[in-house]
Amino acid sequence: LDSLEIAEAIIKARQRKVRVRLVLEGDYLTVRRAVENPFESGGTHEINRLIHDAVLRTHINVKSDFNPSIFHQKFIVRDGSALLTGSTNFTDTGTSTNLNHLVIIDDEDVARIYSREFREIMQGHFGKLDEGHDPAPDVVRVSEVPVKILFAPDHNPEMEIMKQMAKTRKRIDFAMFTFSESSGIDDQMIALSRGGIKIRGALDGRMANQVWAARHGLLEEAIGIKLWTVPSQGALRKLHHKLMV
To answer: Start and end of every PLD phosphodiesterase domain (predicted)?
Structure first.
């Protein structure tokens, strides 16, 4: 959380007597190298620490995740009746210079499932040390549309992604920030393309050219797959989406 605008909105909600609880990735509250005088302001991620202090001064219940892995969730539950989620980090780059998306769902059942996940996070029940804690994935209907909600790592979403891809009849479109080779998903894409399914993908230019990226194998092994890489240029920093149609 380094967006002052979002931080101010969170603080204003608390000042309106709204109960606010917050979990942040702790890595962005530290400096890369120890400084000579830790009581002086400055260094990497200073804006994150400034916002963190402001949040604490407003008596917001905030927990920082300092485990070695990345805390990667991005969601808000409002009043137990609506959910905001997507690929967007609550940062200046996430909202202004990266290609991202947000989804807002007004549904109490969806909000209830995410509220349960939030309670588990606040209690420390997440990550590899607590894998398998969640019950089976929930399926709810939102305006008669079935919505299945999975959380990693408990629900092994890779298998669900492959299962949904297997239902494809004509075409798959996807936009992805990071897509690694030999994940199972790329193997499924290759098999589908050989079966006549058209596949189009947009990838972040820097990540797609890493040695471990799936792009290389997809272009070598598959037919009917078209891939575009989006370079960092001008105001655009990253393609940060995580979506598939």
So the answer is: 67-94
The rounded radius of gyration (Å) of the Cα atoms in the chain is 20
Which whole-number Å values give the CA distances from 13 to 3, 57, 91, 104, in the listed order?
A: 16, 14, 18, 19
- The answer to whether the CB of 101 falls within 8 A of the CB of 87 is yes
Residue at token pair 């797959």:
225
Residue 4 is encoded by which pair of tokens?
A: 């002052």
Domains, the chain: 4-149 (3.30.870.10), 157-244 (3.30.870.10)
Residue of 146, 159, 155 lying closest to 110 (CA atoms): 146
Q: Distance (Å, rounded) from C-alpha 91 to C-alpha 5?
A: 9
End-to-end CA distance of the chain: 29
DSSP 8-class letter at 28: G
Average pLDDT, integer, range 35-64: 90
The per-residue pLDDT for range 117-159, each reduced to its tens digit, is 999 888 877 655 555 566 788 899 999 999 999 998 888 899 9
Nearest CA among 93, 23, 17, 108 for reference residue 59: 17
What's the whole-model pTM score? Answer: 0.90
